[in-house]
């Protein structure tokens, strides 16, 4: 079964890319006065942070003993919730930009 192997490598790569993206966002020089850019910055940071939590929850599921049903179930819920939060933040980015442009044209 080659599927889990490349999927795990892709997930590991996305984890490190998210860590790098979050590091770049945290260390970037930015004015705090510009509200739309600050909102974009926060949404990007939240997206990367939630994806890191998702990748860690998936990795922890594979390393935990199947006898610990409560811990396994909580890790599954954590992975699902962090995936949904990542998706909602990623969806909010273009919607926020559309609303900012609509306000600017008024």
UniProtKB/TrEMBL annotation:
Residue ranges of the TM segments: 12-28, 40-60, 72-93
Protein name: Uncharacterized protein
Keywords: Membrane, Transmembrane, Transmembrane helix
